[in-house]
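Private note to self, pasted from the team thread so I don't lose it. Backbone tokens:
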């Protein structure tokens, strides 16, 4: 049966990484759909081009040339000068030139998707051609022709019916014939052939979309950690690997902000009972973590930290309580701004929410709210979430901090602190 592998940017960040990923793939002979992110920090660099172009700082071309040169250096090392792969890369990068040579006519989010998507197109071109060079039957596939979305740029919604039709009619035969198909995470396309993206770090979700539509045997997410851990190892010294996790627990963790898996990934797999493995590309033989339908008891405390939080306190301007009509107006403004509420608390005279600091979008939202309400804003806060909490863990994480907002629900406790 078909298996889906997803490799993130850290796994293909350089020449050694690309060779390591190819080695992992070579150890599997079953049909594989390989979903790949942009190399290393390429997405951040491409975002810099978008910002420079949109704000007309004069730096867009310099930033573009650096990203382009970095990819061509990798290409030349792997394939030699003037290779077929370098010609393919040139065709991909010229898409950015076409955008930044023109005056700014389009909305930021549209420009973002047209430019940032080039990272995935470039990385997959290099990996696919390296596998061919190593003698493995491989085909490169443009995900924009398969994952069909609406026109909500930077957070596109999948048209599942159209996507499933494209994937099943296009990929199933290719995987039988070619054995390996390399495609991109994070990106899709509209019915009018405009490029869209599925949200930051959306490559995991792409892998789940492909797996769901192909009825895959499993999905493996390859990362630089041994599996799902109880906390961020760069922050905590005593983290432990969780060997097995239920779909429900994984959904809860990602909803509360755990970054190890994109939050939209699990549901398409749960709907078809497709297991997911979170494995290490550093130690491919390790067992990793399996996520499936089996229930698991006795999870250890799991800690999720989110920085750059903003607490917004919304109050009425007259003497009225914050009632249903006020809340309806508030939620509509949040939905229109595409800003997710992480925590909220309603009292008689105020409604408080914690959100991620999205800068420009957040400022627009605050300006909209100020038209109807009194607004107080506090920035540079942290959101602490503890699943399966224990008193000693709570005490340790909140020591010497001021708790501004607290929420307890079942096995989860959350704090907004400064």
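Design output:
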């Amino acid at each position: 049966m078909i298996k889906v592998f997803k490799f993130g940017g850290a796994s293909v960040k350089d020449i050694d990484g690309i060779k390591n990923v190819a080695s992992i793939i070579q150890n599997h002979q079953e049909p594989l759909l390989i979903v790949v992110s942009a190399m290393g920090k390429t997405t951040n660099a491409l975002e810099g081009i978008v910002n420079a172009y949109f704000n007309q700082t004069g730096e867009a071309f310099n930033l573009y040339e650096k990203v382009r040169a970095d990819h061509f250096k990798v290409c030349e090392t792997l394939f030699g000068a003037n290779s077929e792969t370098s010609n393919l890369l040139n065709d991909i990068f010229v898409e950015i030139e076409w955008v930044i040579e023109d005056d700014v006519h389009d909305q930021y989010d549209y420009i973002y998707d047209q430019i940032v998507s080039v990272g995935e197109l470039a990385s997959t071109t290099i990996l696919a051609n390296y596998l061919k060079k190593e003698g493995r039957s491989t085909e490169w596939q443009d995900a924009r022709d398969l994952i069909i979305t609406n026109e909500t740029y930077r957070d596109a919604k999948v048209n599942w019916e159209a996507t499933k039709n494209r994937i099943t009619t296009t990929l199933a035969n290719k995987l039988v014939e070619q054995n390996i198909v390399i495609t991109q995470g994070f990106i899709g396309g509209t019915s009018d052939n405009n490029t869209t993206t599925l949200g930051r770090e959306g490559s995991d979700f792409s892998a789940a979309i492909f797996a769901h539509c192909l009825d895959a045997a499993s999905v493996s997410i390859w990362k630089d950690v041994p599996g799902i851990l109880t906390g961020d190892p760069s922050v905590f010294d005593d983290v432990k690997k969780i060997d097995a996790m239920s779909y429900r627990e994984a959904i809860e963790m990602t909803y509360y902000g755990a970054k190890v898996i994109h939050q939209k990934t699990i549901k398409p797999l749960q709907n078809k009972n497709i297991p997911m493995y979170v494995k290490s590309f550093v130690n491919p033989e390790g067992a990793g973590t399996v996520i499936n339908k089996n229930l698991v008891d006795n999870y250890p405390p799991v800690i999720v930290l989110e920085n750059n939080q903003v607490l917004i306190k919304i109050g009425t301007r007259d003497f009225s309580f914050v009632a249903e009509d006020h809340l309806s107006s508030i939620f509509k403004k949040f939905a229109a701004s595409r800003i997710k509420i992480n925590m909220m608390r309603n009292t008689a005279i105020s409604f408080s929410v914690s959100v991620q600091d999205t800068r420009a979008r957040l400022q627009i939202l605050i300006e909209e709210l100020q038209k109807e309400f009194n607004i107080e804003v506090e920035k540079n806060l942290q959101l602490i979430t503890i699943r399966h909490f224990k008193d000693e863990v709570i005490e340790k994480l909140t020591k010497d901090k001021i708790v501004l907002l607290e929420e307890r629900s079942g096995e989860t406790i959350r704090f907004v602190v400064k």
